[in-house]
């Protein structure tokens, strides 16, 4: 018998108005995955580092484009020191955003993103931009770099020889980090440690999904999933195989 490996269930929908096709990773979107930052996340170092409480913020965030960078800079300008532990350190370095070997990124400081509030900070641990947005009553995705609010969702676009567009919304995998992803001891979509959410991803990440694909495609996804009724979606591979990574200690 062949192993199901990384088999996922998908939903395809073609926009009757715009014509583009959307492929949704239903196995992931219907799963109970949830960000467990501060709740046992093992981080993205070569060894488990839950005590550092860095999540996937151990490295500087790369910006999608100039608009992404400028939007984040405007958010940075709104941050108060009470929400950002490394405010003074960033000022002394010339700001939290810099050009590293040709790429614009957030700086790192003491081994992690300079926007990350470390354990014990009175203003709250985690992303200062996220905390600032919440304090202002605004959406964190409007303050943070695109890569940060999108994770672990990934939208890919392709165009065939006839000009037809296809957008694929799926989970972010190790391979999407490039060569560095293979060095992670652990990645959250590969281990059932992170599949503990009270709601499926398509509900808990509603705003992010709509931001990525639009309200109409998202509505089609919801209609499909709700219309399935009690029909079970293929469980996520991480749930099917259990905590292989954390039990064996292998990446």
Query: Which class best fits the helix and strand makeup?
Result: alpha+beta
Secondary-structure element string: EEHHHEEEEEEHHEEHHHHH
- What is the radius of gyration? 19 Å
Helical fraction equals 25-40%
- Would you report the number of β strands? 10
Order of strands across the widest beta sheet?
1-2-10-9
What value does the average pLDDT take?
A: 93
User: What's the total helix number?
Assistant: 10
Question: What separation lies between the terminal Cα atoms?
Answer: 26 Å
> Any low-confidence stretches, pLDDT <50, length ≥5?
245-251
| Major sheet size, sense and barrel closure | 4 strands, mixed
Protein described:
This protein is of the alpha+beta class and 251 residues long. It is built from ten helices and ten strands. It has helices at residues 26-29, 66-78, 87-92, 128-135, 146-150, 201-204, 206-213, 215-227, 237-241, 244-248; strands at 10-14, 21-25, 97-100, 103-106, 108-109, 112-113, 116-117, 126-127, 153-159, 165-171. The strands form four sheets. Strands 1-2-10-9 form a four-stranded mixed β-sheet. A two-stranded antiparallel sheet has the order 3-4. A two-stranded antiparallel ribbon has the order 5-6. The longest helix has 13 residues, at 66-78. It is globular. 31% of the residues are buried.
């Amino acid at each position: 018998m062949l192993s199901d490996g990384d088999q996922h269930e998908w939903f395809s929908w073609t926009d009757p108005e715009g014509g583009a096709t959307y492929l949704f990773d239903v196995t992931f979107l219907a799963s109970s995955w949830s960000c467990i930052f501060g709740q046992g996340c093992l981080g993205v170092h070569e060894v488990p580092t839950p005590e550092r409480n860095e999540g996937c913020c151990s490295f500087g965030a790369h910006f999608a484009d100039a608009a992404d960078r400028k939007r984040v800079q405007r958010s940075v300008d709104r941050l108060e020191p009470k929400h950002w532990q490394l405010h003074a350190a960033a000022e002394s370095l010339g700001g939290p955003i810099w050009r590293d070997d040709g790429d614009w990124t957030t700086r790192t400081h003491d081994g992690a993103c300079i926007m990350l509030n470390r354990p014990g900070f009175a203003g709250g641990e985690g992303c200062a931009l996220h905390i600032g947005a919440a304090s202002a009553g605004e959406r964190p995705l409007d303050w943070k770099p695109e890569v940060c609010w999108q994770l672990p969702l990934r939208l890919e676009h392709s165009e065939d020889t006839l000009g037809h567009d296809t957008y694929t919304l799926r989970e972010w995998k190790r391979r999407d980090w490039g060569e560095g992803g293979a060095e992670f001891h652990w990645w959250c979509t590969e281990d059932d440690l992170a599949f503990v959410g009270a709601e499926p991803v398509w509900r808990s990440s509603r705003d992010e999904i709509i931001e990525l694909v639009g309200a109409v495609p998202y509505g089609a996804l919801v209609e499909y999933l709700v219309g399935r009724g009690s029909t079970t979606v293929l469980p996520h591979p991480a749930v099917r195989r259990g905590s292989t990574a954390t039990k064996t200690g292998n990446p």
